[in-house]
């Protein structure tokens, strides 16, 4: 029974497609299944999604890169604002993995492998993958598949959810479990998955159209992916869980032709993000990365040439060739002084040069233009920390962690600041929050208990720690009840 449930991972992970406008193709979108309300409520989906996100943080190489997170989030929410049937908040994040893959799960969580940036040639191609994943969430494919499974087996909803979530990001395990099921159940799972994939393609392409991306990039990306791996002995995870039969590619191509032509200019932000992935997350040597930037720049649109220079600047920075990095970044900042990609790299450069005060000044200036921007705020806090302006560092990070409690970057920096200030209780509390975000509840409670013991007896600080312990106990019990 659990093996059968694990096979349901096939409907969660997703490939991608896209389309700009919407009016014509929306009329013939099919209704598949039910709203899944009988199996799982939206509130329950959000609880399960939060629980699984904590498990992923503890077990997967999540990319905690503020610049990349901001970019992916901007594209994701541009799409969500154009999607139909949005019932949950959405969270977009990246996993460091060169395999091409993306997947969605309960509560509006959408994960992208960094490998997508190595294979998607344009922003619209990336957006097509994301739009497809968003459609899996808005159409509640996971909950609907569970409802169908529950009708055919005596498994409890809790057992089904647990099995699905444990297998959701592991397509190999999902496919292995699929082959272990009976023929009838296996065929039913395959058929249901194919239906969901086509529905996600159709809703995704409509979302792409409304968000003003190039809808033709969905079938273009799918077609290239199918061609590249047609004879591969080991296809990427995305094709294991989201096969691309010819009729699916043909269907998306036909739907894309229903929309009026839309000229989408190359996105410098996408290519800056792509360069950052090549420089920092592709697991290749310095020489290989520099060679890729040189070769790709020669045939690239002039509008995106700066992205390759940016990539080289990051490679030089990460390999301590600071003069070369500075020469490039100085030029880039002059051309776009408010660009977060460039500002983040310049901040790191000044700190590496032993000039954190220069980074502080740069971030203070940027904050005047972009107050409360997460990328600038974190860089500002880091620069303050490096320049030993510790009290101000704590003030900035206390505000930041209040506004962004799920960002481990803020808690890590706050922990470091408290250590430098010899505030042991503050360090313990910050580390407690990191443990909680990783579903390590007992460790989180232990750290907060230690912080409470250190704090002055009867103080407001001790009362705050004790209140947080009570909250963590409730969260832990709720989490354990899901298993």
UniProtKB/TrEMBL annotation:
<dbReference type="GO" id="GO:0051603">
    <property type="term" value="P:proteolysis involved in protein catabolic process"/>
</dbReference>
<keyword id="KW-0732">Signal</keyword>
<comment type="similarity">
    <text>Belongs to the peptidase M48 family. BepA subfamily.</text>
</comment>
<feature type="active site">
    <location>
        <position position="133"/>
    </location>
</feature>
<keyword id="KW-0482">Metalloprotease</keyword>
<dbReference type="InterPro" id="IPR051156">
    <property type="entry name" value="Mito/Outer_Membr_Metalloprot"/>
</dbReference>
<dbReference type="GO" id="GO:0008270">
    <property type="term" value="F:zinc ion binding"/>
</dbReference>
<keyword id="KW-0645">Protease</keyword>
<dbReference type="InterPro" id="IPR011990">
    <property type="entry name" value="TPR-like_helical_dom_sf"/>
</dbReference>
<feature type="binding site">
    <location>
        <position position="132"/>
    </location>
    <ligand>
        <name>Zn(2+)</name>
    </ligand>
</feature>
<dbReference type="InterPro" id="IPR001915">
    <property type="entry name" value="Peptidase_M48"/>
</dbReference>
<keyword id="KW-0378">Hydrolase</keyword>
<comment type="function">
    <text>Functions as both a chaperone and a metalloprotease. Maintains the integrity of the outer membrane by promoting either the assembly or the elimination of outer membrane proteins, depending on their folding state.</text>
</comment>
<dbReference type="GO" id="GO:0016020">
    <property type="term" value="C:membrane"/>
</dbReference>
<dbReference type="Pfam" id="PF01435">
    <property type="entry name" value="Peptidase_M48"/>
</dbReference>
<dbReference type="InterPro" id="IPR030873">
    <property type="entry name" value="Protease_BepA"/>
</dbReference>
<protein>
    <recommendedName>
        <fullName>Putative beta-barrel assembly-enhancing protease</fullName>
        <ecNumber>3.4.-.-</ecNumber>
    </recommendedName>
</protein>
<dbReference type="Pfam" id="PF14559">
    <property type="entry name" value="TPR_19"/>
</dbReference>
<feature type="signal peptide">
    <location>
        <begin position="1"/>
        <end position="25"/>
    </location>
</feature>
<feature type="domain" description="Peptidase M48">
    <location>
        <begin position="69"/>
        <end position="255"/>
    </location>
</feature>
<feature type="binding site">
    <location>
        <position position="197"/>
    </location>
    <ligand>
        <name>Zn(2+)</name>
    </ligand>
</feature>
<feature type="active site" description="Proton donor">
    <location>
        <position position="201"/>
    </location>
</feature>
<keyword id="KW-0574">Periplasm</keyword>
<keyword id="KW-0479">Metal-binding</keyword>
<keyword id="KW-0862">Zinc</keyword>
<dbReference type="GO" id="GO:0042597">
    <property type="term" value="C:periplasmic space"/>
</dbReference>
<feature type="binding site">
    <location>
        <position position="136"/>
    </location>
    <ligand>
        <name>Zn(2+)</name>
    </ligand>
</feature>
<dbReference type="GO" id="GO:0004222">
    <property type="term" value="F:metalloendopeptidase activity"/>
</dbReference>
């Amino acid at each position: 029974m659990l093996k059968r449930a694990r096979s349901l991972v096939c409907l969660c992970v997703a490939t991608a497609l896209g389309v700009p406008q919407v009016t014509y193709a929306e009329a013939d979108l099919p209704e598949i299944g039910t709203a899944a309300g009988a199996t799982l409520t939206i509130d329950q989906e959000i609880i399960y999604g939060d629980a699984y996100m904590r498990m992923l943080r503890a077990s997967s190489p999540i990319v905690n890169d503020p610049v990349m997170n901001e970019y992916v989030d901007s594209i994701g929410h541009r799409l969500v604002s154009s999607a139909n049937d949005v019932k949950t908040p959405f969270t977009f994040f990246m996993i460091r993995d060169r395999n091409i893959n993306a997947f969605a799960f309960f509560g509006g969580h959408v994960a992208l492998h960094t490998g997508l940036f190595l294979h998607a040639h344009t922003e619209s191609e990336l957006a097509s993958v994301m739009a497809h994943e968003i459609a899996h969430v808005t159409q509640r494919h996971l909950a609907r598949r569970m409802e169908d499974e529950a009708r055919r087996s005596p498994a409890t909803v809790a057992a089904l959810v647990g099995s699905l979530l444990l297998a959701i990001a592991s397509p190999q395990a999902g496919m292995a479990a699929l082959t272990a099921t009976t023929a009838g159940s296996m065929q039913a799972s395959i058929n249901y998955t194919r239906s969901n994939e086509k529905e996600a393609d159709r809703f995704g392409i409509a979302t792409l159209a409304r968000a003003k991306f190039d809808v033709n990039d969905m079938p273009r990306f799918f077609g290239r992916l199918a061609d590249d791996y047609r004879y591969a002995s080991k296809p990427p995870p995305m094709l294991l869980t989201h096969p691309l039969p010819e009729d699916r590619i043909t269907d998306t191509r036909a739907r894309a032709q229903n929309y009026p032509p839309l000229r989408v200019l190359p996105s410098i932000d996408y290519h800056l993000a792509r360069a950052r992935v090549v420089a920092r997350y592709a697991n290749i040597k310095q020489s290989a990365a520099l060679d890729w930037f040189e070769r790709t720049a020669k045939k690239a649109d002039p509008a995106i040439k700066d992205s390759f220079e940016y990539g080289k600047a990051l490679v030089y920075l990460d390999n301590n060739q600071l003069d070369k990095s500075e020469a490039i970044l100085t030029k880039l900042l002059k051309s776009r002084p408010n660009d977060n990609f460039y500002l983040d790299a310049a901040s790191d450069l000044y700190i590496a040069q032993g000039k954190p005060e220069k980074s502080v000044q740069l971030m203070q200036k940027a904050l005047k233009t972009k107050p409360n921007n997460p990328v600038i705020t974190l860089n500002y806090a880091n620069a303050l920390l490096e320049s030993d302006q510790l009290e101000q560092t704590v003030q900035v990070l206390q505000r930041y962690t209040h506004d962004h409690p799920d960002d481990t970057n803020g808690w890590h920096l706050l922990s470091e600041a408290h250590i430098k200030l010899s505030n042991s209780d503050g360090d313990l509390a910050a580390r407690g929050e990191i443990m909680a975000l990783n579903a390590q509840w007992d460790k989180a409670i232990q750290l907060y208990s230690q912080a409470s013991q250190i704090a002055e007896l009867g103080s407001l600080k001790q009362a705050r720690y004790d209140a947080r312990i009570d909250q963590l106990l409730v969260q832990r019990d709720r989490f354990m009840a899901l298993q």
